[in-house]
Amino acid sequence: MSQIDQDTSRFREIVRGKIKQNLRKYMSSDNLIGRQGKDLVSIPVPQVDLPRFTFGQPGRGGVGQGPGQPGDVLGPAQPGDGTGEAGDTPGQHMLEAEISMADLVQILSDELALPRIQPKGKKNIKSEVARYTDIRRVGPESLRHFKRTYREALKRQLAAGIYDPDNPIIIPVREDRRYRSFEAKPVPESNAVIIYMMDVSGSMGEREKRLVRMTAFWIDAWLKANYRQVQRRYLVHDAAAAEVEEDLFYRLHQSGGTKISSALQLCHQLIQTHYSPLDWNIYLFQFSDGDNFTSDNEQALRLLHDHLLPAANLYCYGQVDQRHYGDTFIDALERLSPLENLVMSHIPNDDAIYDVIKLFLGKGR
Amino acid sequence: MYTGALPPDLQAIKDEVEGYARTTGLDYPDVRFVMLDFNQINQVASYDGFPSRYPHWRFGMEYERLRKSYAWGLHRIYEMVVNTDPCYAYLLVSNLTIDQKLVMAHVYGHADFFKNNLWFAHTNRRMMDDSANHGTRIRRHIDKFGLDVVETFVDRCLSLENLIDQHSLAIRRTPIRPANDQQEEDEEPGRMPSKQYMDSFINPPAYLESMRQQHKQERVQEKKIPASPQRDVLLFLLEYAPLEPWQQDVLAIVREEAYYFAPQRQTKIMNEGWASYWHSHIMTRHALREDELIDYADHHSGTMATSPGRLNPYKLGIELFRDIEDRWNRGAFGPEYEDCDDQRARAKWDRQTGLGMKKIFEVRRIYNDVGFIDEFLTPEFAERHQLFSFRYNARANHYEIASREFADIKRQLLFNLTNFGEPIIEVTDANYQNRGELYLVHRWESIDLRLDYAQATLENLQAIWGRPVHLETVVTDKGMMRFSFDGKQHTRQ
C-alpha cells in the first residue's frame, strides 16, 4: 500500500469516528436523504482540523484588486468565519465526506447496538452464490487468467534458464495455465418486504411527513443491509386506503377522516395475494397522528390480532403527534396484550428519531 | 515510483528553454524534471513536494481535497518546484506542449529565486533526503510506541507549528539555558586590585555595595526562564518540556520542517512574481512560436486573473517587478523624483539610467514580501492596479471595500504579511507563580485571536508542558484576558 493510501485511509477512519460521534445529529436532520447516490452517501461532517493560534477571520480584512467604491459589498462572509466564541461550538467549516451505505449501516448498528436480524422461515436453507475469487489449474479458456498464466510461464522459463532478457518471449505451456474459478459462498436466502402505511388525512402536515420520511430512510437502510432483496410497498389512507408509488407516498395530501383499519385491510389483502408468510419476512410500519375514529379502533385491532401480527416479523406503529388527543390509536394498541412483534412509539420531534429507530429495529426480528 | 523522465520532445524543449534562461542571467542549480500524472502530482502536492514525508492523516485530507477539486474541474496543478539542490520540478503529463514550455520557463524562475534569495540561504537543500529520514524516524516511533500515541503527539506538535520565530530564520539558536559561570561567582563584583592601605579609596564600600545589588538583580533576571521573552516557542519546549526522547525527536522534526517551509510563505508574492516575470520574458521574447500564441495568452491570463476579494500573488508580484524595472530604467527614483509634485513630470520622467534589469536582480536577492511591498509599492502603482483594502462588516455579515487611500492599502497589506498574518506569541515565564506553569503572551495588535481554536491549542500545549498553561491576550470590548488550562478545565479572567 502506498503512503498516500495509508494516510488517506487513516483520514477516512478519523472521519468515520466523527460520523459516529455525531450520528444522533445526522439521524435527526433530513439532509442525508437526497444526498444518497447509488452506493455512496455524502455526509457533511465538521472539518477535521488542527487547532492553532490564529486570528478570528472577519476582523482581518485584506487587500483586493478591481473596480468599486469604498462601501461596496464584495461578498458575504463564509459561514464559519465567526470569531468563534471560546469553548462552545466547534468551527463550522464543513467537509463533504463520502461513505458507502454499508459503512453507514455498520456505524448505525454499532452505535445503536442493533442485533443482527434472525430471518424466520427457511432459516437453515442457504443458497449458494458463486464468487470468482479462486485460481485453479484447470478450467475453460474463457476464464483463463492472463496475468497469472504469464507469471507462471515466466517463472518456469527463468528456472529452466531459457529466458532471454534481450528477446523476452514467453510461451506458456499447458502446466502454466491458470484459470479463474469460483468459490461457493453460502448466503441465507430470505426475502423481505416492507409495507409502509401512512395516514394522509387532513391532520397530517408537512412536519409529520418529514418525520416519517426520515424514519423510513433509516429503516430502509438497515433492512436492505440485512436482506439480499427488499421489496417496498407503500399504502396511504384517510378513510379509504390505496397503494401508491414511493414518491407520491410522501407528497400526497388528502383531507377527510381517518380509518386506520382501511390500510390494515389493504395490507392484509396484499400479504394474502403476494407475500406468503412462509416465504417472506414481512415488516409493517405504520405512521399516523393517531387521531382515528374511535369506532374504527376495534376493527383495526381485530385485523392486527387475527391476521397481520401472526404473519409479520414485526409491526411497528409510530405516532407522529405533538398534541394529545383524547383516546388515540396508540392507547388502543396498548390495550392489546403485549406481543413480541408489536412495537409502538411516539415520534414527537426530530430528536426522537434516534430512539425510535433503536426501539423499532432493536428487536432483532 | 516518481521517476517519469522527460520524453525526447520535451527534453528538446527543456534544452531550448534552459538556453534562454541561462543567457538572460538566471542562476539556478541543476533542475530535474519529473513527469507525473494528475494523481501522482496531487499526491506529491499533498506532501508539499516531498513524497517520502512522515505519515500523517493531514496529508491524506489534503490529498482527498485536491483529488476532489481536480475531479470537479476546480483546479489543476501544472507544476510544482521544490527548493532542493538539485532542484526537483514536477510536471503534469497531460499539459499541452506549449504549457510545458511555459511551465519550464516558470520553473527556472523559481529555481533561480530559491538559490539566490537571501531568505532561503539557510534552508536545507538536502531536504528531499532529510524528509525521508524524518519519515523513517517517525515510522520507527510508531512501530515502537503505537500509532495512536505517536499520532496524538504529532497532532499536538503540528498544532503549535506556527510558534517559531518567523522573522529571524537565519539565526542559529544556541540553547537558551544561561551558561553557568562559576568563576565569576567567587569574585566580588566591581572590586579592583589594590594595595591594602589604598583599598577603601579604590574600592569605596558604598560603590561595592551598589555593585553587589546590581549583580544580584542580574542573577535573578538570569535565573528567570526564559531570561527574555522567547518567540521560538518550539525550541523552548524542546529545551524545557519534560519529554521522552522520541517525543523530542518528533517535536524537533516538526520544528525543522516548519523553519524549512517558512521562507516560502515569506516570499510568496516575490517568488511567484519572479517566476511569472521570467516565463513571460522567455516566452514572449524567445521561445514562443506563432501557432502557440493563443494558447499561451489564454494560459498566462488565466494565471494572472484577479477577483475582487482575493489578491493574486502572481499578478501583484509580476506587476511590481515590471514597475521596478521600468522605474529604474527611467531613473524614476531617488530624492529628486520623490520630491517632484508634478504628476505629469513624474509620469514622463526619464533620465535614461537603464538600471532596470540590474535592480530587479538585486531586489530578488535581498528582499522578502514585507520589504518588497514596503519599499516598492507606490501610490501610482496602487491606483493603476485598482488596489483597495477591504474589511468585514459585522452588522451586515459581509466584506466590503474599506478604502482606496494608499496609506490604508499599504498598512493592510503589510499587516497581512507580517508574521504571515499570524499572531505573535511569546513565552515569557516558565515558572509562573513559582509553580512551574507556562505563561504565554500574545502581542495584540487590534485583531483578536480565534478563541475556540486558541483554547484547543492551549490544551495541546498543556499536554506537552505537563503543568498548567496560560495565554494572555486582549479581547475587544473585554480588555486584557488570561486563558488558562490546567489539564482538566479552562478558566478565563
Write the layout of secondary structure elements.
The complex is a heterodimer of chains A (365) and B (493).
Chain A: H1 3-21, H2 23-27, E1 40-46, E2 62-65, E3 73-76, E4 94-100, H3 101-112, E5 126-136, H4 146-160, E6 179-188, E7 191-199, H5 206-226, E8 229-237, E9 241-244, H6 246-251, H7 260-274, E10 280-288, H8 294-311, E11 314-319, H9 329-335, E12 342-346, H10 352-361
Parallel strand pairs in A: 7-8, 7-10, 10-11, 11-12
Antiparallel strand pairs in A: 1-4, 5-6, 8-9
Helix pairs in contact in A: 3-5, 5-10, 7-8
Chain B: H1 8-23, E1 31-36, H2 38-46, H3 57-71, E2 79-82, E3 87-92, H4 97-116, H5 127-145, H6 147-159, H7 182-186, H8 199-202, H9 205-223, H10 233-240, H11 245-266, H12 268-287, H13 293-303, H14 313-330, H15 334-339, H16 343-348, H17 356-366, H18 369-376, H19 379-384, E4 387-393, E5 398-403, H20 406-417, E6 425-432, E7 437-442, H21 451-465, E8 469-475, E9 479-485, E10 490-492
Parallel strand pairs in B: 1-3, 7-8
Antiparallel strand pairs in B: 2-3, 4-5, 6-7, 8-9, 9-10
Helix pairs in contact in B: 1-4, 1-12, 2-3, 4-12, 5-6, 5-11, 6-11, 6-21, 12-14, 14-17, 18-20
Précis, in short:
The complex is a heterodimer of chains A (about 375) and B (about 500). Chain A has about 375 residues and is an alpha/beta fold. In chain A, about 35% of the residues lie in helices and about 25% in strands.
SS elements, strand count of chain A: 12
Structural class of chain A: alpha/beta
Helix-strand sequence of chain A: HHEEEEHEHEEHEEHHEHEHEH
CATH class of the largest domain in chain A: Alpha Beta
Stretches with pLDDT under 50, minimum 5 residues of chain A: 79-92
Q: Tell me about the biggest sheet of chain A?
A: 6 strands, mixed
Task: Write down the CATH topology of the largest domain in chain A.
Answer: Rossmann fold
Number of domains of chain A: 3
Proportion in helices of chain A: 25-40%
The coarse overall form of chain A would be: flat
- How many beta-strand elements of chain B? 10
Biggest sheet record of chain B: 5 strands, mixed
Q: What is the CATH-assigned architecture of the largest domain in chain A? A: 3-Layer(aba) Sandwich
Quaternary structure type: heterodimer
Low-confidence parts of chain B, pLDDT < 50 over ≥5 residues? Answer: none
Give the termini distance of chain B in whole angstroms. Answer: 55 Å
